[in-house]
Amino acid sequence: MPKRVLTGLIVSDKGDKTVVVNVERKVKHALYGKIIRRTKKYHAHDEGNEFKQGETVRIEETAPISKLKTWKVIDRVNTHATPERVDVDA
């Protein structure tokens, strides 16, 4: 079975080697059909304490690391990417 990968925002980095990631998903209400947001917090393993609060990251499901941690941080999602500068020879 493949490992699940989720994308979310780090809301806390106070624990040692642990970050709390808030993952948001949008679902359709069963009766009314309105799109509503559902959020869930995941404790994820950050081996080098390199990720900080406010960053958007991808997390991957793993074998249990501790009581709450069954996810690990894979990498940052570059939400503030600037396009590369292109020089035009004209």
Descriptive keywords:
90 residues, mainly beta, OB fold (Dihydrolipoamide Acetyltransferase, E2P), five-stranded mixed barrel
Structure explained in plain terms:
The chain has 90 residues and is mostly beta strands. It has a single domain (3-74), classed as OB fold (Dihydrolipoamide Acetyltransferase, E2P), CATH 2.40.50.140. It has no helices and five strands.
Task: Give the topology.
Layout: E1 5-12, E2 18-28, E3 35-45, E4 56-61, E5 71-76
Parallel strand pairs: 3-5
Antiparallel strand pairs: 1-2, 1-4, 2-3, 4-5
Secondary-structure element order, N to C: EEEEE
Q: Could you give the order of strands across the largest sheet?
A: 1-2-3-5-4
Please give the domain count. Answer: 1
Q: How far apart are the first and last residues' alpha carbons, in Å?
A: 54 Å
**Helix content bin:** under 10%
Tell me the name of the CATH class.
Mainly Beta
CATH topology: OB fold (Dihydrolipoamide Acetyltransferase, E2P)
What is the level-2 CATH architecture name? Answer: Beta Barrel
Mean pLDDT: 91
Structural class, judged by helices and strands?
mainly beta
Low-confidence stretches: none
- Record field, number of beta strands: 5
Strand content: over 45%
Count of helices? 0
